[in-house]
Write a structure and sequence with these properties.
Number of strands: 6
Structural class: alpha+beta
Distance between the termini: 15 Å
Length: 133
């Protein structure tokens, strides 16, 4: 998948370490909203240096094709709306993409961004490069 995708209303881009403060603010503000739905490795609020390390790992995994985690932003990318992740899977769990027989999708949106079909739009955009035509 490409590192950046655009839809009519959204920008999806590979997470960058420089976005840690922006992400921290959203995770802190939405911790209770997100806790039931997504794993702590994605949603746990942390200090900016720890988030920088997390985002650097996600970027390295993206570039290596292990999994693809995108931040979801409105045009202008000044605020985080959420995230979408694509995870190659096989019968035994996580596998390299070349060995995958399916891709698991995970997503989250901050509480005030739900209900506007943004999750559907973001997931479709993230899956489009993997979907046979």
């Amino acid at each position: 998948p490409p590192p950046r995708l655009r839809t009519e209303r959204l920008v999806l881009r590979r997470w960058r370490r420089e976005g840690a403060a922006q992400l921290q603010h959203r995770l802190d503000a939405n911790a209770e909203h997100l806790r039931p739905w997504i794993p702590a490795r994605v949603a746990a609020p942390e200090a900016v240096p720890a988030l920088q390390a997390r985002l650097a790992r996600w970027a390295a995994d993206f570039d290596a094709g292990r999994e693809w985690l995108y931040g979801v932003f409105p045009p202008g990318e000044r605020e985080v709306l959420g995230g979408v992740g694509l995870y190659p899977r096989g019968p035994t769990g996580r596998v390299p993409y070349a060995d995958a027989d399916h891709v698991e999708v995970g997503y989250w949106l901050r509480a005030d961004a739900t209900g506007a079909a943004s999750a559907r739009e973001a997931v479709r955009a993230a899956l489009a490069p993997l979907t046979p035509r």
